What we know:
Layout: H1 8-23, E1 45-49, H2 60-75, E2 79-83, H3 97-103, E3 110-114, H4 115-124, H5 131-141, H6 152-155, E4 159-160, E5 163-164, E6 167-179, H7 180-186, H8 196-206, E7 222-229, H9 234-244, E8 250-255, E9 261-264, H10 281-297, E10 310-313, H11 318-332, E11 334-337, E12 346-348, H12 351-356, E13 358-360, E14 367-369, H13 373-377, E15 380-381, E16 384-387, E17 397-400, E18 403-414, E19 425-428, E20 441-450, H14 457-470, H15 473-485, H16 494-499, H17 503-508, H18 511-522, E21 524-526, H19 533-540, H20 542-550, H21 563-577, H22 584-622, H23 635-667, E22 670-671, E23 679-680, H24 684-690, H25 693-714, H26 716-726, H27 731-739, H28 746-757, H29 765-772, H30 778-803, H31 811-838, H32 840-848, H33 865-889, H34 894-902, H35 907-935, H36 939-944, H37 956-966, H38 970-997, H39 1003-1009
Parallel strand pairs: 1-2, 7-16, 7-18, 20-21
Antiparallel strand pairs: 3-20, 4-5, 6-18, 6-19, 6-20, 8-9, 8-10, 11-12, 11-15, 13-14, 17-18, 22-23
Amino acid sequence: xxxxxxxxxxxxxxxxxxxxxxxxxxxxxxxxxxxxxxxxxxxxxxxxxxxxxxxxxxxxxxxxxxxxxxxxxxxxxxxxxxxxxxxxxxxxxxxxxxxxxxxxxxxxxxxxxxxxxxxxxxxxxxxxxxxxxxxxxxxxxxxxxxxxxxxxxxxxxxxxxxxxxxxxxxxxxxxxxxxxxxxxxxxxxxxxxxxxxxxxxxxxxxxxxxxxxxxxxxxxxxxxxxxxxxxxxxxxxxxxxxxxxxxxxxxxxxxxxxxxxxxxxxxxxxxxxxxxxxxxxxxxxxxxxxxxxxxxxxxxxxxxxxxxxxxxxxxxxxxxxxxxxxxxxxxxxxxxxxxxxxxxxxxxxxxxxxxxxxxxxxxxxxxxxxxxxxxxxxxxxxxxxxxxxxxxxxxxxxxxxxxxxxxxxxxxxxxxxxxxxxxxxxxxxxxxxxxxxxxxxxxxxxxxxxxxxxxxxxxxxxxxxxxxxxxxxxxxxxxxxxxxxxxxxxxxxxxxxxxxxxxxxxxxxxxxxxxxxxxxxxxxxxxxxxxxxxxxxxxxxxxxxxxxxxxxxxxxxxxxxxxxxxxxxxxxxxxxxxxxxxxxxxxxxxxxxxxxxxxxxxxxxxxxxxxxxxxxxxxxxxxxxxxxxxxxxxxxxxxxxxxxxxxxxxxxxxxxxxxxxxxxxxxxxxxxxxxxxxxxxxxxxxxxxxxxxxxxxxxxxxxxxxxxxxxxxxxxxxxxxxxxxxxxxxxxxxxxxxxxxxxxxxxxxxxxxxxxxxxxxxxxxxxxxxxxxxxxxxxxxxxxxxxxxxxxxxxxxxxxxxxxxxxxxxxxxxxxxxxxxxxxxxxxxxxxxxxxxxxxxxxxxxxxxxxxxxxxxxxxxxxxxxxxxxxxxxxxxxxxxxxxxxxxxxxxxxxxxxxxxxxxxxxxxxxxxxxxxxxxxxxxxxxxxxxxxxxxxxxxxxxxxxxxxxxxxxxxxxxxxxxxxxxxxxxxxxxxxxxxxxxxxxxxxxxxxxxxxxxxxxxxxxxxxx
Length: 1010
């Protein structure tokens, strides 16, 4: 009998969906087309991927990639796509997510790589050689493998030591990405600038800030002429500027037997040996034989590989230094826009204009009094605003404090992905510094490779089928057809259109766009791929760039930093510690230092372990009177019972606590590889760590962070708790108010301060408050400065009076006296400095003279960056710490306060002789914890600055994280962690000794005892 359901098919669909979800989680199975029913599920080959195109996206590129993916699924129904959820890592180690996935056994079977990653993946043994599959392709088709028809400079990264390890999936070139609407509203012609001078004038015309324009309307966006990346992505754009300035980034040298280094170009490899057809074969092979003959004449083996070369950073020449000077120009050049609407309204302010306080337009002669507040407000500083993150090809718009910030020009990538912005953006050729310098075009590729950890031959073959299809002619035709249907043929390389027979569409591409494509291919400069260059691009190049950003000119326009020296120091550091080989005498000297440090670390750790065991034994004896807890019987039985119940806990502690320590001990003496094959290097890691100047610099900066954290934040909760006990009303309200910052997570707090309060522009929240004081009227200025002076004087007098108060002795007497002396010295120093030139009359003038505060750079200020990092931490941590001390204050007997009152003790005397003795145990324990926590600090620094500017905020904890997860140098990172642990073991032992001597009891128990 058939049973009918009121919702028949719907109920069955629900049960079917539920069954599918139970068997295959929705987050794991990709949205692929229906497979052929003739293939049994057990016989299908699972292929794990990360980059499965989303079918919900409507951009032409996504639609094209989705169609290619569906075409692969139809052609190979025996392959079942399993979509893995990628690991998400923010910041500098974002590109290392696949590294960690490989270590955890959850990596995809097909890697999607950037060019700069190929060398590191090869070095770690993650890549499977593809020679066999390429040769099989040639035997099967009778043709060489073409792929995406990439040129030779893109294939350079794919072949190492004469073998193919990956194949290009696509490649892109850098050009100037421009906003059509901003160009139109500014009346600027959308054409490529001829040199950097014209580039600057164009950016100046496009820059428009509502706060500086008299005719601005409410709600207008802030528009900057040019976008400039800072932080970890700064080096990526900096390469384009170096090449466009006529400089070079890295140079490979071939070492001869006599020790001489011969500069050589990229390896002159004949890709026909590997059955690979490159896109520029005619031009490439035309000069290959000539190049090989020249190298042979110089004594160089023409069959060298990139691993045979010695690499050097050479960007310290005059041309490359000009790139840094360009950054200075677009950041700090002061200029004005004339109110009269004519051509060339914008003009730079000369030193004479700034000194005289009067700026005249060179075209119409209209003058502006820049000595007044209204005149100063109209002065522009630079044409760019640094942006720390890169948001992709459309990184021309961001939001700050509910204000829209837009960028008229940005360095972007010329590839298919730009089609999503066709209505609003256009691409122009990037200009050279002068017309005499040939143009340069940054080119880089995306690559596909097979995961070497995958041992299943069927899955490897399925992975190659996927690579072969998505890089093959069928997939290429699908992509081109998708773009042609959308009318976006101008975003396809003309060579690709021609090879696929789209002659009519090729004719539809505008002449300027075809000329741009030709220029990008003719003057291509490939992204450097030598081992360690990712570190150079993301960190080392950031040091001179941060130095230029933080080098704010003085009132006369003078700068403190020398760009030439900055670049020379960077090249010296990189060539000595990253790309170069150390001299033998340096290695011997470092070895002696390494042995000394290793022995010291071992002695500290062994001594600490011995002392810890002794303290544990003492604690056990101290607690002997509390033995039992319901366990009775003979000693052996009690012992076995205790062991039985504690075994699971001990096992978990050993597994998650001590086993990693043992593994770390081994790793510290190895060149550790994630997939195995680690080699013993003895003390090399300790030698490299302790002999590196950066380590000692980072250790000093860690101590700086420690001292500043303790001075600024350790005593603040104690003082706040004392104040809260004294207020007569509203105690609950203030407790809740101070605790509120702790409700949000620390990361949210950091981002809030970084993006809202630390806005570097004049309109930033803190900066707007600071700059407000510059425009105060003279009477108000006199009153305000007088009040500040009187407040400081009363503070000095109050501190001095407190130190001589009744009943105050010891440090309670001399501490306020020292602060009073420091305050008095500061007041006298300021008075002498003001009256030094003009006597007493100068002091009167100073009171009425306006302040000349400048906008703070906050996290970009190398002198104050550490201070601005610590402020949010204190703001968020003072409230919870205050409540802990407030609870402890409740346990102090009232009789002690009454006795102090009878003796006539002041508030300070009560704090010294009543509060401190009762809170000393808690203060000491928190002090030890604060010291250990500050020494290991890294999270808040990573979020706020990433270690910049110029690495002045890198601590040892952050450096360990960088070494381990950004550069995969786990051996050196572990050695550095052991050194840091040895330095901290003394604080831990001190805390254990205190706990051994102290006996704690709750305040409620004391009250009950009474």
